TrEMBL record:
Signal sequence, renumbered to the chain: none
Top-level taxon of origin: Eukaryota
Gene Ontology terms: cellular component: plasma membrane
Keyword NADP among UniProt keywords: no
Gene name for this UniProt entry: LOC113922840
Family: Belongs to the G-protein coupled receptor 1 family.
Designated name of the protein: Olfactory receptor
Length: 320
């Protein structure tokens, strides 16, 4: 074997993000699409956080979790989208070794934290519907803070383990990552190391992250459905289901894409890129829309803020 075959990963100074294999003419269209989606992510999630922080009526456990969900969506999409947009115009499409490590670490941290946060939100809905009289006692400020801090802690630990395992690989086969961001499965494809141990560790990490959170969500919703079906009035059932449907929609999109991406054999790279778009850009874009359009409190708070802005603008015009 020649010197290149035994080259260690530490000698790699950068990677190439291949991105989407389309005609160069379509790069402008993809850039505009990414720009539009990212602008909606920024506007929607910053707007949601602003509404929750400024309106005292939204000072409840559900909106505390929702504010953190917007924060996570904003940051992990910001880890991916700007670099992907730059690469549509770049000929080299390169990312430094340190940049690739940072991107994988931050993305893994926030996506894992979101999974645990969604499980905490399912538990919150379970308490709200199944035990409403003790809701504010059980979902105390301390418990909510612990659940959110625990989500970030689990994300951080998982990210450190996944990033460490991934970058102990030797990348002598190629520098070209067949993806639009640094993810561990595309990185495994270009490694010349024995992947058996790494795949076992990666699968184990995905399992202990995804399965417990899914179990919490499923069990919570089993109790919720059981409780709602006991409500006699149609209006009462509709109101109870409406508080959960938004959360259930977000969970379905996110976990559907993640399970497809990480549990199905990695045989179709282009399909994996499309699935990745669902949880890197589409979900962060849809979350604020789903939660605001189906939530009377958020819509009322938004009208209040817009009303103040319009009043202030009219006052300025009058003075001028």
């Amino acid at each position: 074997m020649d010197g290149r075959g035994t080259r260690n990963h530490s000698e790699v100074t950068d990677f190439i993000l291949v991105g989407f294999k389309v005609h160069p003419e379509l790069h402008i269209l993809l850039f505009l699409l990414f720009l539009l989606v990212y602008a909606m992510i920024l506007l929607g999630n910053v707007g949601m956080m602003t509404i929750i922080m400024t309106d005292p009526r939204l000072n409840t456990p559900m909106y505390f979790f929702l504010g953190n969900l917007s924060f996570i969506d904003l940051f992990y999409s910001s880890v991916i989208a700007p670099k992907a947009m730059i690469n549509f115009w770049s000929e080299s499409k390169s990312i430094s070794f340190a940049g690739c490590v940072t991107q994988l670490f931050l993305f893994a941290l926030f996506i894992v934290a979101e999974g645990f946060l969604l499980a905490a939100m399912a538990y919150d809905r379970f308490i709200a519907i199944c035990n409403p009289l003790l809701y504010f006692v059980q979902m105390s400020t301390r418990l909510c803070s612990q659940l959110v801090a625990g989500s970030y802690f689990c994300g951080c630990v998982s990210s450190i383990l996944l990033t460490s395992v991934t970058f102990t690989l030797s990348f002598c086969a190629s520098r070209a990552i067949d993806h639009f961001y640094c993810d561990y499965r595309p990185l495994q494809r270009i490694s010349c190391s024995d992947l058996y141990f790494h795949k076992i560790v990666s699968f184990f990490l995905c399992s202990i992250i995804i399965l417990p959170t899914i179990i919490v969500i499923i069990v919570s919703y089993m109790y919720i459905v059981s409780t709602v079906l006991k409500i006699r009035s149609t209006e009462g059932r509709k109101k109870a289901f409406s508080t959960c449907s938004s959360h259930l929609g977000v969970v379905s999109v996110l976990y559907g894409a993640i399970i497809f991406m990480y549990f199905i054999p990695d045989r179709f790279p282009e399909l994996s890129k499309v699935a990745s778009l669902c949880y890197t850009l589409v979900t962060p874009m849809l979350n604020p829309l789903i939660y605001s359009l189906r939530n009377k409190d958020v819509k009322e708070a938004l009208r209040k803020i817009l009303g103040k802005k319009i009043f202030l603008f009219n006052s300025i015009l009058t003075v001028i």
